[in-house]
Amino acid sequence: MSIPKRVAVIGSGSMGSQAMWRLAARGAEVIGYDRYAPGHDRGAAGGETRIFRAAHLGDAGYVPLLRLADRMWEQLQQETGSPLRRRSGCLVMGEAAAPSMRLLLATSTTHQLDHEVLDREELARRYPQHRLPDGHIAVLDRLGAVIRPEASIQAAAARAEQLGARLHRYTTVREIAPAAGGGVQIITDHGTDHVDTAVVTVGPWINTLLPGLPRTVDVRRVICSWHLPTRHDWFTGGAPPFVRSTPHDCFGLPSPDGHSVKLGLSFTRHLPVPEPERLVREVRPEELGTFRELIHELMPDLNPDPIRLSAYMEGYTESGNPLVGHLPGEDDIVVMAGFSGSGFKLSPAMGEIAADLALDGTTEHPIGFLAPAAVGTV
Ligand SMILES: Cc1cc2nc3c(=O)[nH]c(=O)nc-3n(C[C@H](O)[C@H](O)[C@H](O)COP(=O)(O)OP(=O)(O)OC[C@H]3O[C@@H](n4cnc5c(N)ncnc54)[C@H](O)[C@@H]3O)c2cc1C
Q1: pLDDT tens, 215-251?
Q2: What torsion do the CA atoms of 104, 106, 107, 110 make, to the nearest 10 degrees?
Q3: Taking CA 157 as the corner, what is the angle to CA 243 and CA 51, rounded to the nearest 5 degrees?
């Protein structure tokens, strides 16, 4: 009988919990570490909701990864019996002539995605919650869905533990070092473990644990703001989550509370986070100007006075593509970082890919454009 490979997963957040699940399902001896515990709200995964969409505004290379993620979300729900993702559709809005919207439409045609283009009049008729400026269009992505991030992370981590994984909660990994004679040493305040391979999924803490990555990961504080509708029904009428690229790069989702709509902005609007452990979680009133403009111009139905504010953080790369693969020169260390504000939907696919890379050294899934040393395209 062959000895199972011993794999450390460092960080059991969005990507790490899924990696633990897939590794344990494939018979690896999995040891997870997290500075907090699955489902916490101090990193990239808080705020109750995430958008799943097939309509990615970036590289068409994401389509097969999103299809894999779509299947894996169904599998996770089935195995855990938890309602983690609800199909709702998703609206993607932007200037028809903008390169990102043109790429989205071209990708949609080439890959026969279930999309419908809505002009201004049609959008106003079906989704009166939104205003569309001249020259803009909306694309209704029927594969769109709302995911519950905290519940998903807890479900994936619990399933991994059920399958035999061990998870060290409230245990910060201080250092990862190649071991003499092969494998990797994982150093925590409680001691040192020796494993065959390490999967590093520490999200916004990546620069602290692995300084000097081949591509820069710019960690930013991301604020979300919750608003009550004043006129239109965003809930029983089924207003889907949305993403807008212009004139305000933003996203929004009707909340599971059944009353409020959560809004967030693109990374250019966010402050850098020099030290993730000192993330400023309080949101000051002077930070709300863009939310007010956005509501005034594009969703006048929402009350501009928020009922709730929160701050999270995320790692962004220049291309918007994450770093996924072996660390250059280190065959025993797999890194997944820099998901740039759109990684949650992909997380079960990333778990499957992490298991391939850690156990087989390679994957058949097309991740070449995400290689840690790749420059990537927008
Ligand atoms: C406000 C907001 C909204 C978003 N909306 C969407 C969306 O709608 N759709 C979408 O697809 N994506 C969205 N994203 C992006 C998505 O949430 C992130 O890409 C994803 O959560 C990143 O996952 P991660 O595993 O890299 O980081 P995390 O989920 O933060 O996980 C990192 C984990 O590592 C642990 N850790 C860190 N350092 C150590 C250490 N040294 N030792 C042990 N453990 C450690 C942390 O405690 C944490 O649990 C959004 C992001 C934000 C911030």
Answers
A1: 999 999 999 999 999 988 898 777 999 999 877 789 9
A2: 160
A3: 5
Band the pLDDT of 1: cuts 50, 70, 90.
Answer: low
Compute the distance between CA of residue 163 and CA of residue 159 in angstroms, rounded to an integer.
6
| List of residues 6+ apart from 326 with CB closer than 8 A | 333, 334, 335, 357, 372
Q: What is the pLDDT of residue 375?
A: 52
Residue 276 contacts residue 35 (beta carbons within 8 Å): no
Structure tokens at 108: 């949609």
Query: What six digits make up the tokens of 151?
Result: 């519940």
Domains detected in the chain: 6-49+149-216+320-370 (3.50.50.60), 58-146+217-314 (3.30.9.10)
Q: What is the mean pLDDT of residues 73-102?
A: 96
DSSP states along 178-230 = EPTTSSEEEEETTEEEEESEEEE--GGGHHHHS-S-SS--EEEEEEEEEE-BS
* Protein residue closest via CA to atom 13 of ligand 1: 342
Ligand 1 atom with minimal separation from the 174 CA: 41
Neighbours of 374 (CB within 10 A): 17
> Tokens 């494939």 correspond to what residue?
26
The verdict on the CB of residue 168 being under 6 Å from ligand 1 is no
Provide the token pair at 114: 């279930």
| 22 backbone dihedrals φ, ψ, rounded to 5° | -70, -35
How far is it, in rounded angstroms, from Cα 255 to Cα 108?
A: 28
- Taking residues 365-370, what's their average pLDDT? 97
Ligand 1 mean position to 198 CA, how many Å?
18
**Taking the alpha carbons of 228, 221, 340, 201 in that order, is the dihedral positive or negative?**
negative
Confirm or reject: Cβ of 13 under 6 Å from ligand 1: yes
